[in-house]
User: Which sequence fits this backbone?
């Protein structure tokens, strides 16, 4: 059983709580946000977390202005792994959180779903500090970077030289405010914006920006860490990796199927392209949180073998953990409980 | 630098010699077959191996009726990793070779590209013997099982439960006798055949069988080890995995694109399918030998961390090794040298 803490209680963190409840070998024991933290060795209830607007609303929560530190200092010995599900605005935010975690003395596995190249570089530069402090930090372990990066590194094996890796994602969400932080990060990739600018924008300003674009964000040549992760893993130089996508913030149907195309030259001199396409019914929550848990499982195995420091999803694969035998019941109960909330609101 | 020995000098082994020559961090130092073995600490020339009808023809070779044992007893300390590229007919052949390798006292990584479920089960059952004898044995590390199995295990991460994994391969080769052993293994999957029957057939009988089918082998519900490898890796039960394909033995164009489809149910209750498709220009030689080298690299890393015993490609990913800077020259030289041979024949 892997005892997990989630730092952050936005769209990703809340859905992770629901997912973990359906999985066999993970137990969610802690969640925190700016308002406070909640810890329970017996495990936390997914629906309560999904329902909460702030962590302090959850039964048993402790209000705190320094919730990450307070949680870890007090309960670090009961935690095997941490998922950092915090919005990363500005770039140095999660790297700074990582430094704070080191100071608490936490030993174990940390997984993030960071996206920007600069942020992953900062995490990578903490390699020796993680090593010296008993931490294995896995970065870029969501969908892209993450699932698609590992797929690209794997697909590369048919080639002697990789010539091009093109990642194209499609995201459809019915209202932008379920994934505020993610949408803000996407806007930061648009021409004329950056993480600093976006971090200072109000929700109304974000909404006005979305209105100008009919709710559609078209992203090209994004600063996405797949590039350096694949470079670190020796797959190809960063210039050969491009990431772009279309995000529809008003429609849960994906505007385009998420895919990665890997083009290379074979040892026989032929140029060819492998393609990995994700099913449209899999949402961002499925394609980020599932891989995060899988990489965490690989991380726990490697941690047991003595591996410390920073690795990325391009160096690893994710290990699958089966569902609980009664997961369909749990899923149904979650859905009914959440439907009730929606109707009540 | 990884010093590699290839056991077997058929289609796969010979192409592996050409591939290794283009790669940066591998050196091919030994090859053997029924006729003898050749060892050179400075590395062997790919073209000489590709040209040889038997290993004894290669300059510096030692004739031997017990070539695997003789090679390993004499040179095991100079070998980091072994690729078993022998035809596996009957099923117990490679498992028996593995037992012989253990007896020689070789310590290091062994990789195979085994295909049949029964054979992989036999290798798996040697787990504790490999552990006790300082060996990390990676089984099923070719294309399928191998590349496609890892892709399936990775793709599974978007789901809570995996409902179906369907592997379909297309192979096109211009003449069957370049891949005699592989074609024999494929025929062993046809109704009315098995490994024992096929191992007793003459080349003329194989050819007659191919003529009956206009050179096309249509394979359905094959006994392919992807099933137990994915079961061992907790992805799904073996009954949910099916493998089939079409092999054209008279046409180098693939009759169908090789692909794997992974269908599962998400934590949100949706059923969806991810697809991984290989480019048609990538041949069996690319899709088997490339992954074998990649899994070998992962194996070397894990070996250094103290991992011993048996793992499969469903537990791991393959790590990419870059090409030599002058690999295009090497490729050209290989192609010209081999063209000359063809013209001369």
Assistant:
């Amino acid at each position: 059983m892997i005892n997990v803490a989630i730092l952050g209680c936005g769209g990703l963190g809340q859905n992770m709580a629901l997912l973990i409840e359906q999985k066999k070998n993970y137990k969610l024991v802690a969640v925190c946000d700016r308002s406070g933290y909640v810890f329970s060795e017996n495990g936390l209830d997914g629906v309560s977390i999904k329902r909460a607007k702030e962590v302090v609303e959850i039964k048993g929560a402790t209000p705190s202005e320094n919730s990450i530190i307070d949680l870890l200092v007090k309960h670090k010995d009961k935690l095997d792994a941490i998922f950092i599900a915090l919005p990363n605005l500005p770039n140095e935010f999660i790297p700074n959180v990582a430094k704070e975690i080191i100071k608490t003395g936490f030993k174990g596995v940390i997984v993030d779903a960071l996206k920007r190249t600069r942020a992953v570089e900062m995490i990578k530069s903490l390699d020796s500090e993680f090593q010296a402090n008993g931490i294995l930090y896995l970065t870029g372990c969501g969908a892209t970077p993450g699932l698609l990066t590992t797929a690209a590194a794997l697909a590369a094996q048919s080639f002697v030289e990789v010539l091009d890796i093109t990642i194209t994602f499609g995201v459809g969400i019915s209202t932008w405010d379920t994934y505020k932080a993610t949408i803000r990060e996407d806007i930061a990739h648009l021409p004329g914006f950056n993480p600093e600018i976006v971090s200072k924008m109000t929700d109304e300003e974000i909404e006005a920006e979305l209105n100008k674009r009919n709710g559609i964000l078209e992203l090209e040549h994004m600063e996405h860490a797949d590039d350096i992760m694949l470079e670190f893993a020796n797959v190809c130089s960063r210039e050969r990796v491009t990431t772009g996508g279309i995000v529809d913030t008003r429609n849960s149907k994906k505007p385009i199927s998420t895919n990665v195309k890997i083009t290379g030259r074979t040892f026989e001199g032929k140029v060819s392209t492998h393609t990995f396409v994700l099913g449209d019914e899999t949402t961002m929550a499925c394609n980020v949180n599932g891989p995060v848990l899988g990489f965490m499982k690989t991380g726990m195995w490697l941690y047991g073998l003595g591996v410390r420091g920073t690795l990325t999803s391009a160096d690893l694969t994710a290990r699958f953990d089966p569902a609980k035998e009664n997961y369909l019941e749990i899923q149904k109960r979650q859905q009914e409980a959440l439907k009730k909330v929606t109707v009540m609101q």
